Every structure is written in C-alpha cells, then in structure tokens.
Amino acid sequence: MSLKFKESTVQEFEGIASRYPVRRAALLPALWLATREFGWVSEEAMVEVAKLVGCSPAQVLEVAHFYTLYQKKKPGKYHLQVCQTLACMLAGSEEVKKTIERVLHLKPGETTPDGKFSLQMVECLASCHTAPCLQVNDDYHENLTPETTEKLIRDLAGK
Amino acid sequence: MAKITLNGQPMEVPDGANVLEAALSNGVPLEHFCYQRYLPVAGNCRTCMVEMDTPRGPVLAIGCNTKVADGMVIRTDAPNAKKAQKTALEMLLLDHPLDCPVCDKAGECKLQDQYMQYGLYDFRRGVPRDFKGGKAEDIGEHIVLDTERCVLCTRCIRFVDEVPKTSELAIVNRGHDSKITIFPGMRLDNPYSGNTTDICPVGALTLKEFRFQQRVWFLKKTESVCPGCARGCDITVEHNKGRIWRFMPRENPELNKTWMCDEGRFSFIDQQENRQEAIRLGHGTDDLKGALKKLADILGGLQKDEVAGIASPYAALEDNFLLKKLFEKRFDVKNLAAPTWAKKGEADQVLRLAEKYPNEQGVKLLGIGEGDASFWEKLEKGVFKAVIVMHQDPFGQDPVRAKEYFSKVKALVVLTVHQTQTSREAAMVFPVRAFYEKDGTFVNATSRLQRFRLALEPEDPNVVEASLWISRLAKALGVEGMDFPDTPSVFNAMAKEVGPLSGLTFNSLSSMGKVLDLKPIAPEPFVGVKAQPNVLGKALGVTNG
Amino acid sequence: MGDFQPQLTKRFGMKDSHKLKTYLESGGYESLKKLFAMTPEQVTEEVKASGLKGRGGAGFSAGMKWGFVPKGGAKPVYLVVNADEGEPGTFTDRFMMLHDPHLLVEGIICASYAIGCHTAYIYVRGEFLEQIKRLEAAIAEAKEAGYLGKAIQGSNFDLEIWVHRGAGAYICGEETGLIESLEGKKGQPRIKPPFPAIVGAFGCPTIVNNVKTLASVPWILANGAKAYAALGTPESQGTHVFGISGHVNQTGMWELPFGMPMMDFIRDYGKGVKGGALKAVIPGGSSCPVLTAKECEDLTLTYESMKSHGTMFGTGCVTVMNEHTDMAKVLKNLTHFYRDESCGQCTPCREGSAWEDRLLKKVLSGEGSEKELELMLETCDNMEGKTICVFSSALAFPVRSFIKKFRPDFEKYFVKGAVSVPGAVS
C-alpha cells in the first residue's frame, strides 16, 4: 500500500514552508501533516515526508524518532498519555496508570486488540496544579482519581 | 601566528587553528573522538577538555571548538582537565562491548589507544551493562554496522552529509537510547562509503573486504598514489606477507583531504588478480635477458620507421619518458602515440573523474600526443611491422577499433601488468610491475606531480618495471645513454629535460607532491563542500602557493 | 507588598479573554502608541532599566540580551518565543497563552521592534494544541485589525508571527535546542560560542525569550521602567506568575510582585501543607536544588534569596512535599525524567543521566550501598560543566541536593529487605 499526500495537503505544506527561509524548517510541520493525514508516522509516511520537504529519509527518521509525540507505531483510536512526573507522581499518577492497566488489560507501549486504546507514559504535561493528568489524543483530562479515570475510559470505550 | 602558552611552554600557532590541533601538531597528546579535521566541529564527545585561563579564573573548555588567540594560556595536563578527559572516556566505555578479540579496529581504535593513555582506571560501573543491540549488520555493499560499539561521535553522519551529501545515516532516539542506524530497506551505498569506516573511531563501521583479514599491527604501510583515475588521491598501500590487504587514503589537505572513493579503495582486489605471470614469445617462454635479446634481434632487422609505440596515461612518467627517449634515439618519435580508447567512467563533484587513468597529464607534459592522422593510417595499413604497446589494452577498450588498426601488425609486443585481451592477441608478452611494485611518479588532473613507492617485490626477478625494461632493451639494441639503474635516476634525468620539472629530484619530492606549471584538465575537487581552513596544511608547509 | 494591578493575569477569569474585542476593551495594544514613538534603542534601554529578567528559568536581564544583537547587520534578525514549557512543576505559560494570547502578541511586537525583527516564531510544545489554536486565532485577529503585517498602526514597522508546533522533547526548551528544532532538526543544543544573538536561527542573529518575559514588556513600556522596578525588590523587579502544586490544600497560580516569603506563600495561597508537616520544597522546577523545611523559613520568592539559599529562582512554580514523602522515590522519578529527556549528544550527559538512573534503581531495589550514592555524587561532578548545555547541571542539582539533604531516605534502602514508605499521599 503506497501512501501519498493529498494535493490539497501538498499545497498547504507549500504555504507552511514559505514561512521559513529554509525549507528544512518545515519538517516538523510536515510530520504533523503526515500524522493528520495518515494517522501516524510510519516508515512509508517518512519517505513521503522526505520527498515533500526535500531531505533524505534517514533525516526524517532521526527527527521522527527524537520527538515522543510522533507515533511511530499505530496508536489506538484513543491514545492515552499518562503524565508520570513529579507533581503527578505526588498526586497519584501511579493509581491512574494501574486503573487503566486493570480496566483495559493494557501495559504502556501496548494497544488493545480491538485497536481502541493505546497507553504511553509521558513526562510533565504542565498540569501540575491539576494533577494527576491524562492526555487523550490532544485533550487534557485533569484532577483524576481512580474512579474518574475508570469512568472516562468506559465512556470512551462505549463510543 | 598566535602566541600561546601550552602546558607552560610558549609557542606560536597558525591563526585559525583550534587548541586541539595546536596541541597535536606540537606533540602534546590530547584525547579526541568526534573531531575530524575536515568535517564540521560537533564538540559532543567532550574528551578533548583543556583548562584555559580567563579573567574569571580557569575554566574547562573543549579544545576542538576553541580557536587560538594571542595570550591564551592552556593546560591539557591540569588535574581538572585530566579528570574530565578520563571520566569522559570512562563514560564512553560504560556500555561498550568488550569485542577487541573479534573487532577489526583493534590496533587502530581510539578507545583502545586513549584508554592506555588517559584511562587505566578501576572498573566501577556498578550496574549491569545496557547494550543497544545490533551486531554485524550488513548495511551496504562494503559496510558492516555494529551498533553496540558505536560511541555516537557523529563523524559518519557528518561525513555522509558533507562530502557525498547522501545523508543515509541517522542517529535515532534520545539520550542513552540513541543509536546509529540506516533507514530500513535503504543501503549505505554512496561511492564514498568506505571512508566512514576510516573515520569511525571504533569498530562500529567496518569494511566487509577487510573483515577478519589482517590484524593491523602486522600491516606495513607504503606511501602511494591511487591509479584509479586522474584525481590521483594519495593513498597508503597496506600489506603483509607479500599481499596487499587494503588501500587507505593518505592525508593531503590540498588534494583528497582524508578521503578516497570506493572504486579506488577496493581496486586493491582486482589489482592483485589475473596477473600476467610469464614472458611469452609466440608459444614459448623465456627469461627476461633471453627474451629481450630475441626482441632486439627482431627490431634490429626492421627499418627505423617500421616500429611504432603506444605509450600510456596508465603508466608512470618514467616509463613514458624512457619510451619516448628510445623512440627519439633509435626509431622515429613521430611513431609514438598515447591514445586512450578507454570509456569514460563515472565522475562527480567530490573526487572522481571520468578519466580512469592516472597520468594523462604526465603524457601531455612529455609532449606525447594521441597520434596524428598519418600515424593511424600507417598503423591500419600495416606499415608498422612491430608495435610496442606499454600499459595499454586497446583490444579490451575497443575490440572493433583495435582489430581495425592492429590486425596487420606482425609483431605486437605487449608490456602488461594483467592478462588482457591485448596480451592474448600479442606475439610477445612481457609482464611488468604494477604501480605498487615500483617507485614512480604520476601527474594528476590538477597538475600535481606525485610520487608512489615500492610496496611489494614480485617473486619473479624477470618482472621489472617498464622503465627498466626499456632501459635494458635499449642496451640490447646498442643505444647509448639510456642506462638507468633505478627510477630516481630516470626521474632526475627527466627533470633536466622537461621544463616544468626543472630543479626537482626524485628523493626531494614532498609526500604531498608538487603542483606544476601545467594547465589542469579538471577542476579542483570538493565542489560545494564547505572549505575548512587548511590550517594544519599551512603548519606543515603544504600550501603550494 | 503594596498595591499592584495584575498585568499578566489581568484577564484571567474574563469572559472571552482571548478575543481581540475583550483585549482592546481592557486596555490592550495601548503600549504600541508609546512603542512607535521611541527608537528601538530606547525601547531596549527601557526594558534594561526595568530590571526585567528572563522568566523561563535562567533569569538573565532581558534588555541586556536584546542589546547583544549586532546593529546594522545585513542578516535578518529573528525573535523566537520559547513556549516549550516543560520544566516539571511548571504550568503558568500554558494559561498565559490560553487566557491572554494577545498580551503575548503585544509583547512580541514590542520586542521585535526593539531588536529589528520582522519575522517572529512562537515555538509551542506539541501537547498544547488548545494554546496553539488560541494563538493562531489571536494572530489572525491582530493581523486583520492592523496590529500585525505591514506598517503596523501607521508606523513603518512590519511584523509577521508564525506558530511552530513542537513534538515532545523537554530539551527543546533550551534556547539553542529550540532553534535547532525550529530549523527542522533534532532539538540538540549547539556548542557555544557562537551565541544565538550573533548566530542563531538560520544563521542569523536571534533572541529567544520566554512567554512571560515578553508578556511583561507592554506594561513596562506603557507605565515606564521605574514603575516596574518599584514593584518587587531591588534585585527582583516587577511581578511574576507564581504557581504551587504538590502536597498543598490549594494548588493554583497567582500573579504577585517578587518578595513574598515562601512560608507565607504556602500558607496564604497554598492554604497550608496537606497531609502532614512540611518536609521539602522544590522552589522553581525540578532543576533547582531542593530545600528542606528549615531552609524555607527565611526564604523569599526572589532571585537573590534563592541564590543565597543555594538554589535558583527558576520558573517560580513551587512543588511542596510533606513529611510522608519518600525523597528517594521522588528523586528516582526525576532521574527517570532526565534520563528520558537527555538529547544524547554529549558523552557525560548521555551516559551520566542513564548511569544516575540505573544506580538509583539499584539502591531502591535494596542492592545498593554507600558506594552507589558516592558514585552518584561523583557523577554529578563529572557531568556538570563538561557538557554542551546545562542539562547536566539540571540533573546534577536535584541529585546532589536530594542525597545531601535527605540522606536517611536513601540509607534506609541499604538494608536488604527494607520496607519502602509510600511515595505519595493521595
């Protein structure tokens, strides 16, 4: 299966690239476009991004692998990112993680067999005063308890 | 020049040099991994730490990124600096596999060398090793990658980005999970891939052609010049037990820097195969003395203008010079030509040139042309009864044309290193020495006269260099003034007769050669590669104006 | 403390605070009138005189930094906003951009004018998608109303602002790491010299400033450097948005002038320590040396007081820990963070950060001893000052301070089979 950017996306990229004096600067935006269009950043997607930006696939590879938000493995429909750092740890992030593991039978780095949920432990989300925090795809869910975490997961599972 | 104080010693260092270079070129050892003179500075290994005096007191800085300036006071041996050098090395070794017994790099490995110099510490990791995984992966036609051994100096990445500009290599992940890799499914197959294994300070990138072949401490190294194309990159011929195990690039800041192409690098394999072994006269063989006598008899029975010669851009200056002299003294120099029917090869803006022979400029310097119309007409018509073909393979280069021109030649006399189509067609075949079996000189495309040296002696004493063969033929023909016992004497005689060489002697030539007053036939190499200031070259006195 | 009008959080709590209409109605873009009546040099001098320090954590004089940009060069000058808030314990830029994006835009206009920049980028961490949307909307509103684009408000100053989304890497908060990431590469900090003000983004002079630093500028220009410097203390001028989290009864953020005693802040704003007596405080993000409860007794929320107590002001976001906190486990949480976030470029940090984490893991597993702690402390010395950037210090500061000040928490693991104390009180 060969991936290809939609023509409208290519045009969009050209507009983005024109904001920078050097085309290579549009590589991070291009990877975001790839995420939006293909769902995640596969090796095939990286080759397409390399063509779009005008750099080598290896250069795209190393940038994609440096940043944790680009998904190099296909994520679940709901990608659960649990903050584990300092304030969240003090507020009970471990319990949030354990709740998810229990309810979904899911360990960090894994995806549920039905492809609905994937779990990733992440570092400080800047939600320290509303800890513990869980980011589901792009949305923040804060002040969680094991109960509210379970409710959130079950609600999403129902969707 | 900048006046600095290094470890208490005042010294003068060329402006623009960095502290690391200043130390090394003055015999002060300083550890380093990521610094490579011809690549952009990365400053990531943190091993070349020195202590520098500043108005705010002594500070630690990396030597490779600190340019010298008047009044600088630097200490590589200050306790703080030594501790920093030692602990950086310790950290590099923390998760490095103890592969020395099976690693090709042993003997020329920076980790080994610098451990003996700076380390020698008690082992104290305290926690289990955390290997990155990945052993002995085939990632290119010539390259094996051992991810575990990599110290993440980024030399290879900077090389493929800057020189061939192919950017195949990447370091993925962050922090301690960083590892060197290539894009899945792609290969490290640019025409300069071999250089990555030279610059890799450890055994992470190694050559398939050298894998498990020789321990480097047994290799003898001879200064030479690559004959693969007209660029004439400086090389070292590395050999042991009568065999060449590898060619390595030899540093020349004015020419190939520390690089050479894969074509040239791996030519050591074909160079040693398929050699012409015996002298062949018709269907018989003979020793050199006897064969030359027979040839002299044949040539003696011919008219002066019935003998032609094919000189060669593949052959050394000395060989071409003496062949021309023989024709001047004994035959007709108008019947000596140095045509090239070899197809042009791949060229690029880095080093490679399309002319895959080393001495076209040398032939031009000596005034040997490609043969005028009447030469070719006479050859085709069979006017030349004997033709001496030296270091050329017209039947291999262009069989159809060769048949057309050479089929009426009664006595085709061939001087050859390898068995070729031409040597098979010839009436008389004389094996002659390869470039690594003799001394000699080439003039490269940018008019640089360079010297190569004898590395291996052939076992058969009948195999001599072409210039010596001509000298002995001349003697057998009774020609005076061509008795040269060795290459230096040929060169020195040549220098007296050829204008641009005047004043030079073979033994006084520098190991980086000399640019002659001769129009170049190619542009300088490394088009578009950011020029590094040639500071060390200047320090060594190698600038050529 | 004296009376002061909040300027940074003034619109927090207003309806539609992020919209241009609300912004203008509450005095927004007023400073531009003053701005264009001054020369760029005068603007820089004013900001210098105000004492405004970089609010991202480094605390360097903002005006002085602007002054490093060479004058009259041929290359364009860039301003890059560091909105990559990632320091553990810190969360205030997130709400600045959410509630008052126009204030940031106004600050960017002022700073750009001062340094001669006509293209500015806001580098926002990738997780802050809501903030990115708000910023892009604010920029579009501002452009349409003539506050951005060509000939802003009738002046002869042009400016474009673009938002650049990060993708999850703490090290991109380091200014040269941020520039590398802006340029489309891995966010690996650069060797210095050269410094960004001379050679920064795209080879051109660049100033990188934190969100709150820039958001502070409009008030300074509108009210004068003297009025700004009159707030706070003589060495910590102006106001800041302070945050508090951890074991307190009320977490949150408030704008205050510098100078409040730490214990007052915890008592009056944090509403006291939750779940037990105070044990430890990290004053401004995990990279600051931790303080014991005793050390906080005479500490004030100022740069100078933090320095004299052997720590740093950092981001001004305080993390509070009560007596039941296992400091060894907290440190392990932090070593895990630094190991994850090290960019991996240079040897001491790459290997050292992983080594610290593995050594501490060994201690916590009951297999460690004095030897591991000593090795951890020595490794701090072997990393600090020997690396390309100060990430190594950011790791060394917590490791050193936690071990030195809370040694019993570590030593209890030396005995095999020690019962571990819960690390969190929920």
What does this structure look like?
The complex is a heterotrimer of chains A (159), B (545) and C (426). Chain A is an alpha+beta fold and 159 residues long. Helices cover 47% and strands 11% of the residues of chain A. In chain A, helix 2 (27-38) crosses helix 3 (43-53), helix 3 (43-53) packs across helix 4 and helix 6 (93-104) runs parallel beside helix 7. In chain B, strand 1 (2-6) and strand 2 (9-13) form a beta hairpin. Chain B is elongated. Chain C is an alpha/beta fold. Chain C folds into 3 domains: 20-230, Rossmann fold (3-Layer(aba) Sandwich), CATH 3.40.50; 239-322, Ubiquitin-like (UB roll) (Roll); 327-411, Up-down Bundle (de novo design (two linked rop proteins)). Chain C contains 18 helices and 9 strands. In chain C, the strands form 2 sheets. Chain C has a 5-stranded mixed sheet. In chain C, strands 3-2-1-4 form a 4-stranded parallel sheet, sandwiched between helices. In chain C, helix 5 packs across helix 6 (101-115), helix 6 crosses helix 9 (211-223) and helix 14 runs antiparallel to helix 17 (391-405). Chain C is globular, with a radius of gyration of 22 Å. Chains A and C meet through helix 2, helix 4 and helix 5 of A and strand 3, strand 5, strand 9 and helix 14 of C.
Summarize the structure.
The complex is a heterotrimer of chains A (159), B (545) and C (426). Chain A is of the alpha+beta class and 159 residues long.
